[in-house]
Amino acid sequence: MRLHSFVSRGFSGDCITVEADLRKGFPGFDLVGLPDSAIRESRERVRSALRNSGIPIPRKRVLINLAPASMHKAGSQLDLAIALVIALSQKISDGEIQIANDLPVMVVGELALDGTVIAIQNVQGALAAAKQKGCLATIAPVQDGLLPSDTLMLVTSLSDAVKKVQQHLLGDDFRKLRAGEIQISHVIDKLPFADVEGLESVRRALEVAAAGGHHVLLFGSPGAGKTLCATSFSSLLPPAQELLYEEMARIRSALGSLDPLIRGERPACILPQVSLKEDFSFYAARSHGGVMIVDEISTFPKSILEQLREVYDRRRVYLKMDKRISEFPARFQIIATMNACPCGELGIEDGRCSCSQVTIMRYWKKLGSGLLDRFDIRIPVDPQQESEIVSFPFDLECAFDRQKFRFSNEDFPIMQNADLMHYPQARVHHIDAQVIEMAKSILDGSTSMRGVFSVCTVARTIADLLDQDLIGEQEIRIASMLRRYGSYDFYWRSY
User: Fold this and answer.
1) Quick one: 282 exposed, middle or buried, by C-beta within 10 A (0-12, 13-18, 19+)?
2) What is this structure's pTM?
3) What is the pLDDT of residue 169?
4) 246 & 155 share domain
5) What percent of the chain has pLDDT over 70?
6) Are residues 172 and 215 in the same domain?
7) Which domain range does residue 336 map to?
8) What's the burial of 228, exposed, middle or buried (CB within 10 Å: 0-12/13-18/19+)?
9) 299/101 Cα distance (integer angstroms)
10) SS3 sequence of 204-260
11) Residue 92 has what pLDDT?
12) Based on the structure, what is the number of domains in the chain?
């Protein structure tokens, strides 16, 4: 008798086959297949759970094999599978049920001594593994934060799991045996920037960023509205596609996140002042599919800023979990904020900035030229400044639809225009050489080649917002204006 279970390895994991054999001999419980201490100790938890659930313990020699035998297994999430395969094997031996040797069911959960099933991490990973394995259902403990699925059956105890499997063997559909629908939160409709007054130029720049997935640096004086704009940004983003939504749910499940994933909303994670790379990697994984807000970026340690630059390039992070290094996807937009100078008064009307030009340049160099070059849009937050971008009739839904159609048959994992920065092979098919030469001419050597390509991708987004197929000089000039600040031009207004 065998069924399937799952061992979590961070974001991913391994499918484990749990086999039981009851044979004549002195009653006992043998467990093979390279289990760790937690799994070996499951023998006592399983015995107590079976006895306290009113399920007879086999008066035979029980052998449990965890396959593949060459793979080390760790954790307590195999408890329910081991107990269930023993209970079913005993019922088969007594002639109570008839079942094939292989039960195509994924079972995960930790057992308490009274038979209660305890919540575990990465149930979403088990669901994905069950789908790949072709399992009819996944039996898991009742817990918050799970995505609804026709194949997910939630149980509260060992006896509940045995009962539902027996009902299935008698002909009931697994979908009728689920413990109610999973309650999920839905996004509350709210107008983008409902809490922001004025700052029309900044709003329009953030619309461009949201439409194309571009990274943004907002700078200005204290109290100008930088953080408020950054925290309001995620309301502009479109709902995550199903595959991305499942990835976000798997990450939350693997990390043990307690806050629910809201349907239709993209996560916005504010990066706290961390000093360890491991802490940063945790927040980077949680930001996958959404936005990472780096407030006052100039105050972060250089090691964290370097890590941020590396994650931008790799789009994945590594976390140490259960004595193993696990890889997590980390594709997100960066919205960073900072003052324009150390004293914060640069650019304020009639302000008294006490910083010299050398001090200001040294302050901006804290970011590092590599990280600064990766921000596609750098915009001052100034309540009294308006730019020509305000006059353009942008249509966000049109831009989202055009990109979805453009990249629908793409061989690379590209969903937005900003993704073209990571795939040069695909970029040549979507941005003409003529557009690149036009951008070089307008920029006139004031930026790197990465900057040229960045301007071209932002120009592509602006054309999408205007429902245009071709990128013209106007779109490139607007894109170059949005990227202008930060290299050597910090004085966006005389004072």
Assistant:
1) middle
2) 0.85
3) 75
4) no
5) 91
6) no
7) 200-483
8) middle
9) 61
10) HHHHHHHHHCCCEEEECCCCCCHHHHHHHHHHHCCCCCHHHHHHHHHHHHHHCCCCC
11) 87
12) 2
Contact 178, 139 (CB under 8 A): no
Answer for the pair 336, 376: CB distance below 8 angstroms, yes or no: no
267 lies in the same domain as 150: no
The backbone torsions φ and ψ at residue 237, rounded to the nearest 5 degrees and listed phi first, read: -75, 150
3-state helix/strand/coil string of the chain: CEEEEEEEECCEEEEEEEEEEEECCCCEEEEECCECHHHHCHHHHHHHHHHHCCCCCCCCEEEEEEECCCCCECCCCCHHHHHHHHHHHHHHHCCCCCCCCEEEEEECCEECCCCEEECCCCHHHHHHHHHHHCCCEEEEECCCCCCCCCCEEEECEHHHHHHHHHHHHCCCCHHHCCCCCCCCCECCCCCCCCCCCCCHHHHHHHHHHHHHCCCEEEECCCCCCHHHHHHHHHHHCCCCCHHHHHHHHHHHHHHCCCCCCCECCCCEEECCCCCCHHHHHHHHHHCCCCEEEECCHHHCCHHHHHHHHHHHHHCEEEEEECCEEEEEECCCEEEEEECCCCCCCCCCCCCCCCCCHHHHHHHHHHHCHHHHHCCCEEEECCCCCCCHHHHCCCCHHHHHHHHHHHCCCCCCCCCCHHHHHHCHHHHHHHCCHHHHHHHHHHHCCCCCHHHHHHHHHHHHHHHHHCCCCCCCHHHHHHHHHHHCCCCCCCCCCCC
Let me know: does 393 contact 234? Beta carbons within 8 Å: no
Does residue 245 surpass a pLDDT of 90?
Answer: no
User: Are residues 264 and 239 in contact, defined by beta-carbon separation less than 8 angstroms?
Assistant: yes
Residue 155 sits in a domain of what CATH number?
A: 3.30.230.10
Same domain? For 344 and 387 the reply is: yes
Residue 344 domain flag: yes
Report yes or no on 252 lying in a domain: yes
Contact between 62 and 22 (Cβ < 8 Å): yes
- Tell me the CATH number at 426: 3.40.50.300
Asked if residue 495 is part of any domain, the answer here is no
List pLDDT tens digits, range 317-350.
999 887 788 999 999 999 999 998 898 888 776 6
Same domain assignment for residues 354 and 476? yes
Give the Cα-Cα-Cα angle 24, 29, 33 (nearest 5 degrees): 110
Same domain, 29 and 75: yes
Residue 273 in any domain: the answer is yes
Same domain, 333 and 433: yes
CA 434 to chain CA centroid, nearest Å: 36
Task: Mark whether 139 and 50 lie in a shared domain.
Answer: yes
